[in-house]
């Protein structure tokens, strides 16, 4: 499968027509039209109509277009799923997934259409069910996890700091569960819109955890996020050095070699190839 960048995934309320129009010009890899928590109850119907119209009209170029629906336990969830499944966005994002059966319920509302499902990891219960939730991928079309640190903080009573100290183990386990079943995995949002330094610190932490990208709430977070998730010149040089070393005839049958004083194995070759593809 060719590498598809999901470094920056910008949420916007689908009730905000101006934001949707602006998204077509922004440098994010993924656009998430939100029907859920960013939309007030009396704007839910308009948001749904505008999200559906946005998919129909297109104009988002190479950006992936994802719609986050309301939960199936709300009065809007089933209608959101029916309307969005009919226009088939690049993925449908299901909120507040707690169990494997929750994913099956969302998948059951897609009318048999093969639309990738992404699941929010944002309930306390989900943290104990990550393996079972991710394992539904072949049967449900589950293709991604998106972390929801705001809801996790709300449910657990934890205080969110820049480095998400209360959730470090949860973040690591979510990445591991996603990788175990071939899902993509996106980090949560950074709420402090004017704190560029804090955002950069958190984005670097997300890269360290192995996330594919980070969800965002404002256009000003896109460039620093893309920078954080794009391999820098040193990483790219090192990746190319590893690829070149394994391409030498004398290394053709070796599993581990010495490169610039470091042990390098074929698993590092695979990582190096991914780095070059990302760059
Ligand atoms: C947070 C905001 C409400 C701030 O809005 P505002 O103060 O109006 O922003 P600015 O004046 O700075 O906007 C400048 C221009 O940029 C456009 N803009 C702003 N935000 C977005 C956006 N997200 N997408 C596209 N365009 C955006 C404005 O329209 C201005 O444009 P222009 O007039 O042409 O200059 C607002 O940023 C916002 O609504 N953000 C998204 C909120 C959202 O979607 N939240 C839901 C997801 S977060 C979450 O719930 C995660 C998870 O579930 C969890 O539990 O953690
Ligand atoms: Mg949430």
From TrEMBL:
<dbReference type="InterPro" id="IPR040442">
    <property type="entry name" value="Pyrv_kinase-like_dom_sf"/>
</dbReference>
<comment type="similarity">
    <text>Belongs to the HpcH/HpaI aldolase family.</text>
</comment>
<dbReference type="GO" id="GO:0016829">
    <property type="term" value="F:lyase activity"/>
</dbReference>
<dbReference type="InterPro" id="IPR011206">
    <property type="entry name" value="Citrate_lyase_beta/mcl1/mcl2"/>
</dbReference>
<keyword id="KW-0479">Metal-binding</keyword>
<protein>
    <submittedName>
        <fullName>CoA ester lyase</fullName>
    </submittedName>
</protein>
<keyword id="KW-0460">Magnesium</keyword>
<feature type="domain" description="HpcH/HpaI aldolase/citrate lyase">
    <location>
        <begin position="7"/>
        <end position="219"/>
    </location>
</feature>
<dbReference type="Pfam" id="PF03328">
    <property type="entry name" value="HpcH_HpaI"/>
</dbReference>
<dbReference type="InterPro" id="IPR015813">
    <property type="entry name" value="Pyrv/PenolPyrv_kinase-like_dom"/>
</dbReference>
<dbReference type="InterPro" id="IPR005000">
    <property type="entry name" value="Aldolase/citrate-lyase_domain"/>
</dbReference>
<keyword id="KW-0456">Lyase</keyword>
């Amino acid at each position: 499968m060719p590498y598809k960048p999901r470094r920056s995934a910008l949420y916007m309320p689908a009730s905000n027509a101006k934001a949707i129009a602006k998204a077509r010009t922004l440098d994010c890899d993924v656009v998430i039209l939100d029907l859920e928590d960013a939309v007030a109850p009396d704007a839910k119907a308009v948001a749904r109509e505008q999200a559906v119209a946005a998919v129909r009209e297109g104009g988002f170029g190479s950006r992936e277009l994802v719609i986050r629906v309301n939960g199936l336990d709300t009065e809007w969830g089933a209608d959101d799923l029916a309307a969005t499944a009919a226009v088939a966005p690049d993925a449908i994002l299901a909120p507040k997934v707690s169990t494997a059966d929750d994913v099956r319920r969302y998948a059951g509302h897609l009318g048999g259409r093969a639309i990738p499902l992404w699941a929010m990891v944002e309930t306390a219960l989900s943290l104990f069910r990550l393996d079972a939730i991710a394992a539904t991928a072949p049967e449900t079309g589950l293709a991604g996890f998106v972390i929801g640190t705001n809801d996790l903080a709300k449910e657990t009573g934890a205080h969110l700091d820049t480095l998400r100290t209360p959730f470090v183990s949860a973040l690591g386990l979510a990445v591991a569960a996603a990788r175990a079943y071939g899902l993509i995995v996106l980090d949560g949002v950074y709420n402090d819109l004017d704190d560029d330094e804090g955002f950069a610190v958190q984005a670097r932490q997300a890269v360290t955890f192995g996330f594919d990208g980070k969800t965002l709430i404002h256009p000003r977070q896109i460039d620093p996020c893309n920078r954080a998730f794009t391999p820098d010149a040193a990483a790219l040089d090192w990746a190319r050095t590893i690829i070149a070393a394994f391409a030498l005839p004398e290394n053709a049958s070796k599993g581990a070699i010495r490169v610039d004083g470091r042990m390098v194995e074929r698993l590092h070759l695979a990582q190096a190839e991914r780095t070059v593809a990302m760059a």
